[in-house]
Amino acid sequence: MRKLKNTELKRLTIEGFKAAEKTGLIVVLDNIRSLNNIGSVFRTSDAFLIEKIYLCGITATPPNNEIHKTALGATDSVDWEYAESTLSIVQSLRSLKVKVLAIEQAENSTKLNDFFPVKGEKYAVIFGNEVKGVQQKVVNESDLCIEIPQLGTKHSLNISVSAGIVLWDIFAKLNS
Questions:
Q1: What's residue 9's pLDDT?
Q2: Inter-residue contact 86 to 57 (CB < 8 Å)
Q3: Facing residues of 55 across strands?
Q4: CA atoms in the 13 A half-sphere facing the CB of 14
């Protein structure tokens, strides 16, 4: 087995990414404070052809050197928009018939492994603040809470790790 060279990876150009059919997933970042987490979500979103990222509240926006360190240029490929209010974005998405999924530990949440997206539906996944999580008022407006099963002592994952797990899982299920 031989590792592939960068030239063998068949990477899309930015123009190719923009023109490519997207996954049907939208990411909403609800008051993310870490610039490295924001950049990481951009990079993961690029990997799975995410349609758009909404950066809400205190979430910083590109251009930003600290975001760029982990995004590695994905801020140029993935469409994004800033909104002061996460709640207004959620309400807008729901009015467009997008299913809104808060990624949160909550009563009656659905475990990620038990969630099966419907092909052809659009979904928005909301990732919350590193300390406080997704705002309760945003959870209240969501169609569903999805929880990543955790069995250890912490029951807490970094937002960039959560985004990687959730986006991969939904991407894989939509493309199976």
A1: 93
A2: yes
A3: 29, 82
A4: 8
Q: What is the per-residue pLDDT for 134?
A: 98
Q: Give the model confidence (pLDDT) of 92-124 as tens digits.
A: 999 999 999 999 999 999 999 999 999 999 999
pLDDT digits (tens, 9 = 90+) for 13-68: 999 999 999 999 999 999 999 999 999 999 999 999 999 999 999 999 999 999 99
The reported pTM is: 0.96
Q: What type of residue sits at position 108?
A: N
Phi, psi for 12 (deg, rounded to 5): -75, 150
Q: What confidence score (pLDDT) does residue 62 get? A: 97
What is the CATH code of the structural domain delimited by 19-174? 3.40.1280.10
Residue corresponding to tokens 């205190």 = 58
Q: Are 74 and 101 in contact (CB under 8 A)?
A: no
Tell me the CA distances in angstroms from 10 to 4, 6, 13, 16, 81, one per residue in order: 10, 8, 9, 11, 28
Lateral strand order in the sheet of 144-147: 80-83, 52-56, 25-30, 123-128, 99-103, 144-147, 110-111
Which class for 39: exposed (0-12), middle (13-18), buried (19 or more C-beta within 10 A)? buried
- The owner of tokens 């493309």 is 175
Whether the Cβ atoms of residue 55 and residue 64 lie closer than 8 Å to each other: no
Q: What angle do CA 160, 90, 114 make, to 5 degrees?
A: 60
